[in-house]
Sequence to fold (329 residues):
Amino acid sequence: MLKKLVLSAVVVAGSIHTAAAQDVTLRAAHIESTESATHRAYERFASLVDEKTNGAVEVQVFPAGQLGGLRDLYEGIKLGSVDITSSGPDYTANLAPVMVVAALYYSYDDVDHADRALDGEFGARLSDALARDAGMRVLAWGELGFRSVFNTERPINTVGDFSGMKIRVPEAQLHLLPMKALGASPTPIPYAEVYTAMQTGIVDGAEGTPAVVKQQRFDEVSKYYSLTRHLFNPIHLVVSARKFDGLTPEQQAAVTEAAREAFAEQRREARADNEAALEALRGQDGIEVNEPSREEMRSAVEPTWNELIAPLGDEGQQLLQLLLDARDG
Fold:
């Protein structure tokens, strides 16, 4: 009888432990379209987490701004209402200033350079800084691709073609300074107003990846798309450090592995989406696509790097050097 009671107690205790282990839900929210490579990566991530934890961890995905804009989502991570989100480092520079180094105009040569930097010591150091300053960890890096300028006025072939052009940019020094250095008139307006602002002449143009130009129908209000490729737009999937630290070591490993697998595929899909969109734009009536040399433009912008990272001290200089060193493989 005693043996049966002990066995029953073990079974009950085991059941309680199993139930507790399975009672983990991660709320993952983002602002991207449900048609985007990023959303597909979130869905893949959720599926992989379920698979790798045998159902012990559930990831609930809230896409397309269902839980609010980026400010709401990052505030949600602080408050505990959101566990996982993503953005570019140009946004998280508001939370951890050194993230600005990952968003400098003309600092990435190509996608191979970006992969080496973000998957190496440079990306690891940025993750450490975000954990230190903002209480969140980078689980994986993805991308939106290289941003270029679309406008209604003229093709951009040289730095001189930027002169006086009103180009919409986010209201942040890391965008305002380099655009001014190119001779443009950077004009901060909300992203949601770009289409109408171009129709009405409030701005002459804006900038984005080929996929964004097609997805947001900016090709309808543009005459020119110049492949300035001035800004590589990485994104990072971040998790609340508090929530992540509450997982078991096995769960942490599974979540991290799932994120890296899902967003490695996201990069491949984002690149394919951009290539397909660019091909469509090249063959489209009503918009002209041209490809200027980046060297002159990079020379004009490079002096702004030091101005942007000067407040970061030695850490900023070290990170910039790590980024530049990744060019050589």
